[in-house]
Amino acid sequence: MIVSPSRRLRIYGAVATLALIATYMHTRPRWNESPFEYARDYYESVTNYFGGPVFNNTLYSEGNAHMVNQYYNSSNPCANFPDTDGVMLVMKTGATEVFDRMPTHLLTTLKCLPDFLIFSDMEQQVGPYHIYDALAEFEESAKAHNSDFDLYRDQKECPVSQKSCVDAKRDGQKAWNLDKYKFLPMMEQTWRMRPGRDWYIFAEADTYIFWANIVHWLKKESRLSPREKLYLGSRSFIGGTPFAHGGSGYILSGALLKHLIEYHPGMVKQYNVKGAHECCGDLMLAQALEEYENVKIRQVWPMINGEKPSTLPYGPGHWCEPILSMHHMNAEEISSVWQFEQTRKTDRTLLIKDLYEGLIKPKMQVSRQNWDNLSDDVCYLNPDPEAQLRADAHMRERKKNEDEMNDVEKEAWKSPENCAKVCGSQDVPDEDEWDLNPIVARKDDEPGTANDTELAEDTSPSDAAAREEWKKSLNEKKRNRSCFQYRWHEEVCCTAKSFKLGAPKAAPDDSNTNAKWVSGWHLKGINDWIDAMGECKKPAWKSPES
């Protein structure tokens, strides 16, 4: 049957009308829904699409869109967690801080670990997790007349929360004094409770461990054997004695911990008494390892690091190196770094540069008021003798001699604006300024000149090679830049050979303009250095140094 065009149009029109009526009847009841219901339906649609709880990634910004995903899928946080078989985490905390610091760990990295130990200076319970008292077997005779144990006794007598008792007394030094006694008893209890592991990683409640990196390094890149006696960490010195800084985290091989505990039964008691005359537990551990095992720390810095993302000195020596640990991390910072790891667009080795590009670069700006970006490598002081005496001793030690200064540096102390010019004076030309001898176009009807021959010679192959050498020279200058940022306060200008974000400072109470803190970043110099460095061709894994 042949349908006429006019009839066909009437049929199409009727179908379209019915479709519009059906759409209207379906959508009209939803016009009065609350915004909350719309948001709920949006969330459910996104969640169903991704297959789990999905939220906006609060770290995501235009500045790091190439690094992290826009959404945070928290349905399977341990999907890419490494196999930690043979690796034991031992975390040390204190009763005065455990409920402030440990919950965030337990909600992030620790929930992916099949086993770990937490030691404190009091036996406690945080949900299903038990906190062991490292000092439970400490000799009563050693505690009895030692004021360092006043807090230990007070904690047991506190009838309410430890935080309430501590806040009432406001004496944080007591917790520090008690902390040093935990180290060696903790070693003894760890071996007794979890013997036979290959590696023991010791960390504190404000330490963050990058598990994918540290496990890969221990099991493959380090080429170390847990059957050797090894003591690894970030090396510090007190009184000439090298030791692994406790807050940065440190690692003992199973062979070393086994021999230390099983072959020297009186060692812990000896150092329990010695603790009253020493400053620090990590130092005493190093002393015991050298005395009884003849083992000294092997340096793993900067991979095992005592800084955090906002204080890391990004730049030479802190760029292509993988990061294994960080220190001084508060609960919010621990959560943010975990979120960064969870939402990265790649699973390749996480480098120090990635922390900068993902977490710090989006927050960088030309300057900040009431801010300390920790610049202190080279300082420029008011030459007035009284002003020199007022300056901090640390700044005086780092001041540049006047006979070594250029004209810009001699004026740097006078104002934040003058201070900013120091880094600017190290700038090198941009690539679009590299054409030293541009050829000026000549009209067709103009006669040629001898200069045309000279200009042609400037663009010869030999000249191109010279320009390439000049380009390499300028890139080398960019890589060797020694001024990335500045800080000005009380007529003292200090610059830094690396770039850091830093932290806020309180605004001055009075109108004294010299009392303000001003920090600035030479963004052009920073970006020039990054461009000149290029991509990291491979992770710069460090071999432990004796």
Total strands: 21
Shape: globular
Strand content: 5-15%
- Total of helices: 21
Largest sheet: 8 strands, mixed
How much helix, percentage-wise, in residues?
25-40%
User: Which ranges are low-confidence, i.e. pLDDT below 50, for 5 or more consecutive residues?
Assistant: 29-33, 45-49, 436-444, 453-457
What structural class do the secondary elements suggest?
Answer: alpha+beta
Question: Mean pLDDT score, rounded?
Answer: 89
Cα radius of gyration in angstroms: 31 Å
Oligomer: single chain
* End-to-end separation: 95 Å
Spatially, the strands of the biggest sheet line up as 5-6-4-3-7-12-9-13
Question: How is the secondary structure organized here?
Answer:
Blueprint lengths: L4 H23 L7 H16 L3 E3 L14 E3 L13 E6 L5 H10 L8 E5 L3 E3 L2 E5 L6 H5 L5 H8 L4 H8 L3 H7 L3 H11 L5 E6 L3 E2 L1 H11 L9 E3 L1 E4 L2 E4 L5 E4 H9 L4 H8 L6 H13 L4 E2 L25 E2 L4 H13 L8 H9 L6 E3 L1 E2 L5 E4 L3 H6 L2 H5 L9 H4 L5 H9 L25 H9 L2 H19 L5 E5 L2 E5 L6 E2 L13 E4 L1 H11 L13
Parallel strand pairs: 3-4, 3-7, 4-6, 9-13
Antiparallel strand pairs: 1-2, 5-6, 7-12, 8-14, 9-12, 10-11, 15-21, 16-20, 17-19, 18-19, 18-21
